[in-house]
Request: fold
Amino acid sequence: NAGVTQTPKFQVLKTGQSMTLQCAQDMNHEYMSWYRQDPGMGLRLIHYSVGAGITDQGEVPNGYNVSRSTTEDFPLRLLSAAPSQTSVYFCATTGGYTGGYGYTFGSGTRLTVV
Amino acid sequence: QKEVEQDPGPLSVPEGAIVSLNCTYSNSAFQYFMWYRQYSRKGPELLMYTYSSGNKEDGRFTAQVDKSSKYISLFIRDSQPSDSATYLCAMSLLTGGGNKLTFGTGTQLKVEL
Reply:
């Protein structure tokens, strides 16, 4: 049982390039989300989805795009990478987005934009 | 002011010590309180979860919530080197978009032999 799988684990991009961070879960959870983690800032919500075909913005959505065509997958797209997007990105899922459930996180993607 | 405040540490203790980790928050609407442990270069993993004020115990870990003071704590008894990690508090409330977490910045803990 893999839980939440993120790929790639590491990536270096040049400013202006685009890329997609992949997230897949085998827990059959409806709720999926993307966070970025920066020193001194904690984990901040980028986008989230409460089910296939439904997405919404979090706290820091600018420069990122998401879609949710299946329950299992929730890719995060960087449209035109900027150095400010250098961060560690985590995908997370929970079985109870209506409250009272913990989240399961992937192992992260470390992104550097030069 | 951040909604959730957490001392970043680092906190260094000898093996066997009792560790106290704390967070304060400003939003009285928070309903669920969690502690996550994050090892270096890994994703956070859920340690403890609680809903109401009071204490919840799980092995060497005790989570404490005081809603009147907007203060939560995590106590680790008989700390071990394997407890060395960053501990993140997290809180959530129900919104129109579902249950969203707000995290503290994390406290780095090192348990030394």
Summary: DSSP finds no helices and eleven strands in chain B. Chain B touches chain A at residues 4, 6, 8, 31-32, 34, 41-46, 49, 51, 88, 92, 94, 97-101, 103-106 (CB under 8 Å). Chain B has a mean pLDDT of 92.
